[in-house]
Design a protein that fits this description.
The structure is a single chain. By secondary structure, the protein is mainly beta. The chain has a single domain, classed as Nucleoside-specific channel-forming protein, Tsx-like (Outer membrane phospholipase (ompla), Chain C). The protein contains two helices and 15 strands. The chain has a twelve-stranded antiparallel β-barrel with strand order 1-2-3-4-5-6-7-11-12-13-14-15. A two-stranded antiparallel ribbon has the order 8-9. The radius of gyration is 20 Å and the shape is globular.
Length: 286
C-alpha cells in the first residue's frame, strides 16, 4: 500500500508539472491569515496563529490543477514541547488535479445537463509536518473520486472522494515514536467554491469537507465523522492602490471544524477538537 500510494503521488505531481507549461489560465498568490481562536485536540481552544500561504490554480487542455501550501505559526498556547514558551510550526500541503471528461472526449457540452456544467475525476494528496509538544503529525493522504462541476458564476465543484490516510506521530511527553499507521479507507464529500457577489468587488470563497469516521486510530481508540467548513468573504482592494483588478484581496474568514482530525470533541479530546475560528485574510495575486 505504501509503494502504491507513493507511485500515485509521484504521478500526480508529474502530471501537474507537465500541465503547468500548457496552462490556458492561471492564478498564483501569496497570502496571510491571522486568528486568535484556533484549537487543537487534547489541547487549548484559544490558540493564536499566523498563517503564511502560497496558492496556485490553473486550467489546461484537459482539466485543472490546484496547489495550496500553508505555514502555520502558533503562539505558546500550542508549544513545541511540554515546558516550552515557543509556539509550534506546521507545514500543510494540498494538491488536487481534476480531469474534465468533456475536455478529454473533445466534446465540452457532452456532460452538461440541468445545473451541471461538467463532470470530472479528481485525484491528489495532503501532506503535513508539525513540531508541537504532543502529537507531531506526519500525515500522508491520497484522495481520488468523481467531481460534479455546477453551472454557477465563478465555480462550485462537488466531489465524492475516497481517502487513504496514514500518520506516524511522536509524543514528546513520553518520547515515544508511533510506527506509521494506516487508517481505514473512508469517503469525504468535498465542496469547493469561488463565487462573485453580483457586480460588487466581493466574492464568496471557500471549501467544506464532510468526512466519515476512519476506523480505529493508531492508539486503538475510535474515530468520529468530521466536519470542516472554511469560508471567506473577500474584497478586491486593487483599485485602492492603483493595481489591476483581483491583484490585492482583503477579507474575513471563518472556520468551523467539528471532531477535528476525527477526534471526539465530547470526550477526551475536549473543546480543542471543535474549532470555531474567525480570521483576517489578505492575498496578493500575480
Amino acid at each position: 500500500m505504501r509503494i502504491k500510494q507513493t507511485l500515485i503521488g509521484i504521478s500526480l505531481i508529474a502530471a501537474g508539472i507537465s500541465c503547468a507549461h500548457a496552462a490556458d489560465w492561471s492564478d498564483t498568490y501569496i497570502g496571510y491569515r491571522y486568528g486568535t481562536r484556533f484549537a487543537e485536540p487534547y489541547g487549548r481552544d484559544d490558540i493564536t496563529k499566523s498563517i503564511l500561504n502560497f496558492g496556485h490554480a490553473s486550467g489546461y487542455k484537459y482539466g485543472t490543477n490546484f496547489l495550496n501550501v500553508d505555514m502555520l505559526l502558533a503562539n505558546d498556547r500550542d508549544p513545541i514541547s511540554p515546558t516550552s514558551k515557543t509556539g509550534s510550526q506546521e507545514v500543510y500541503v494540498v494538491y488536487r488535479h481534476t480531469l474534465d471528461l468533456g475536455k478529454i472526449t473533445g466534446n465540452p457540452d457532452a456532460f452538461k445537463f440541468g445545473p451541471v456544467r461538467g463532470l470530472g475525476f479528481t485525484g491528489g494528496f495532503d501532506l503535513n509536518t508539525k513540531d508541537d509538544s504532543g502529537y507531531n503529525s506526519r500525515k500522508r493522504m491520497l484522495v481520488a473520486g468523481p467531481t460534479v462541476m455546477l453551472d454557477v458564476p465563478g465555480f462550485l465543484n462537488v466531489s465524492l472522494l475516497q481517502l487513504w490516510e496514514s500518520n506516524a506521530p511522536y509524543s514528546k511527553f513520553s518520547n515515544t515514536q508511533t510506527p506509521r499507521y494506516n487508517y481505514d479507507p473512508h469517503p469525504m464529500l468535498n465542496l469547493a467554491w469561488g463565487i462573485p457577489i453580483g457586480n460588487l468587488p466581493l466574492s464568496f470563497e471557500g471549501y467544506a469537507n464532510f468526512i466519515a469516521a476512519k476506523g480505529q486510530n493508531e492508539f486503538g481508540g475510535g474515530t468520529k465523522p468530521e466536519t470542516n467548513i472554511d469560508a471567506q468573504i473577500m474584497y478586491d482592494a486593487s483599485s485602492l492602490v492603483g493595481a489591476t483588478p483581483r491583484t490585492f484581496k482583503l477579507g474575513l474568514e471563518y472556520q468551523y471544524w467539528r471532531n477535528k482530525f476525527g477526534n471526539d470533541h465530547t470526550k477526551g479530546a475536549g473543546n480543542g477538537a471543535f474549532a470555531k475560528t474567525p480570521m483576517l485574510r489578505a492575498e496578493y495575486h500575480f
